[in-house]
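To: structure subgroup
Subject: Chain for Friday's discussion

All,

I'm putting the inputs and outputs inline so they're searchable in the archive.
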Amino acid sequence: MDEYQAIKELVFRGEEGFNTLLQIAYRICYFVYWIIDNFSVAAKIKIFKANWKSIHRWSLKIRCLALLISLFSTFYQLHYHKLSKENSKTVALKGCRDFVELMPSGKDSRLMWWVDERLAGVGGLISSLIATYQIW
């Protein structure tokens, strides 16, 4: 429900502009990803009959779309907004993290068929390291 609250906050209290529109699209994609991914988990533990792998692949495709929207938003912020040095560093790190997160999601959704297990693993590791650095 955090995504729903973030969408509501952006729609009613966000700034006007293209970047806010990108943030809303990003949050909507993550909200839909979360719902579909929960359906795939429910199908996997046999709450209802469905092909959980297919549902999971669809959820990952939506996650890839969300990551691409986030990358576009990052480039837009870095190019069109005058950010302080600290803010531009934070935005750039988020862009790097989103880029390497595309590897495992793209591989598992079969959108990036050229990404093998090792490259997806390295992408996940780098993404985790960046997230840990940002939290620390």
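Points worth raising on Friday:
The chain has a mean pLDDT of 87.
Residues 52-80 form the longest helix (29 residues).

D.
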